[in-house]
Amino acid sequence: MRRLFSTVLLRIFFTKLLYLRRYGYLDDHMPGTRNLASAENRKYALQFFQNFNKIPITGVYDDATANLFGKERCGCPDVMPQKNEAAFSKKKNPPTPVQFNLGTKWNKNQVTWRLNSFSRKISNNNVRVETRRAFDLWSKNANLQFTELQSGDADIDIDFGRREHGDGAGNAFDGPGRVLAHAFFPPFGDTHFDEDEGWVVNRTGVDYFTVAAHEFGHALGLGHSEIREALMAPFYTGYNPNFELNSDDIAGIQALYGAPRNQPRPRPTTPRTTMPPVVVTEPPPPRPPPTNRPTFCDIPYNAAVRDFNGDLLVFMGRAYMLRINPNRGLVARMSQRTVFQRSPIRPDAATEVMSGSRIVMMKGRLLYHFSRSGRRISRKWISGGGATMPEQARAALSFSSNDISVFGASQVWKLNPNTGRVISGSHRYIGNEFPGVPNRIDAAVIRDDTTILFFKGRSRMHVFDRRQNRVVRTVDKGNELMDSTCNV
């Protein structure tokens, strides 16, 4: 009996590891030890999964985590693999149905599709009608047109299959529940549905239209979204008779293919054409901090970012950082370049891109991408013309993987982290978009699903509630984030 119990526990252990590895949370680019199964890496991967999916970050396999592990979902990873897929070909060394590099897309706007097989659960006509409707959802919101082929080679081949269906044992379907479908990114596009699911049309069950629309998003080049309301979120949310694409889905597909031809391009807005800024009267400063507390409690922050496990990383001074855990306070002080190799000294701004598993830094008009292990992946110039960066960047926030909000002295604008291009027409005044937040902030970071922290000066931190859309508290940052260290 004891041996059987040990075998069951071992199987559960490896099932968790396989899940985290399959969906991109546990890979060869972990920031910890090279042993992927180590306790350190398992905890980090669980924290990353919890952070991405907006559940409490505990680092343990709790009830909320177990519930998501067992939920129906797409078979593609949530986190972008950090490897070059360009060497793959469809006939030699074919890829698995995973996300490819950021920005992968068809090099055309006319895309063809073909139904190679059908489901026994839905009539052939219903499959065809719902497939067209799913493609129409994307063409309505982007410069895309889709054509069905009855024969010949199509860009997107659509099939229903069971268990191991030609993609290799590692990508086999798993029977009813859990993985519903998966798709390949361009230039492959193949989309496969698990025939063991209880497929239905326009009613409660596994709605074919909803799943197909999600998978076609992958076949067009979109990854998974950390926005729970988005179609491209990894978990199946059920049939919705009034379904429309989320703004994050639309931002992603238009970043790849542009807006529909009949939709006018937004005009660039500058301070002369936006509403006058709200004048923010700053509250009196908090009480002067004690003189005997550590010096780093009162050094202004250059930039701040939320690590994938939920910790805060703050850049300060010339080249050092603090790691702050929301529950335990200060965890470590360290050199910036021991964490982020070849990173810019005193970055102007930094933020995280969740589904890309990347940290993005800005310095002047340069954009740097780093892997979660701190390896520098790329450096590119920010494009869009001088008027699109009217002020030097001072902070950055990433609410989704499709755009970054960049804060200057008085304005905030959006930047596509994948292309490095400023989004036309996105310029606004900070006081109008974030009521109560003063101009000339030093850094900002998203603490959780409802709270943003804005830092200014030696000790001031403005706590912004996203639901109330206002600053709810102004506090001493050292006391709030590192109480036991700074509140002496």
UniProtKB/TrEMBL annotation:
Enzyme class: hydrolase
List of residues binding Ca(2+) 1: 197
Biased composition (Low complexity): 270-281
EC number: 3.4.24.80
Binding-site residues, Zn(2+) 2: 74, 214, 218, 224, 232
MF term (GO), any: zinc ion binding
Cross-referenced Pfam families: Peptidase_M10 (PF00413)
All copies of domain Peptidase metallopeptidase, residue ranges: 102-259
Binding site for Ca(2+) 4: 348, 442
Disordered as annotated region, ranges: 258-295
GO cellular component, one term: extracellular matrix
Cofactor note: Binds 2 Zn(2+) ions per subunit. Can bind about 5 Ca(2+) ions per subunit.
Domain of life: Eukaryota
Binding site for Ca(2+) 5: 350, 396
Signal peptide, first to last residue: 1-20
Record-annotated active site: 215
Gene Ontology BP annotations: collagen catabolic process; extracellular matrix organization; proteolysis
Protein family: Belongs to the peptidase M10A family.
Stated name of the protein: Matrix metalloproteinase-14 (Membrane-inserted)
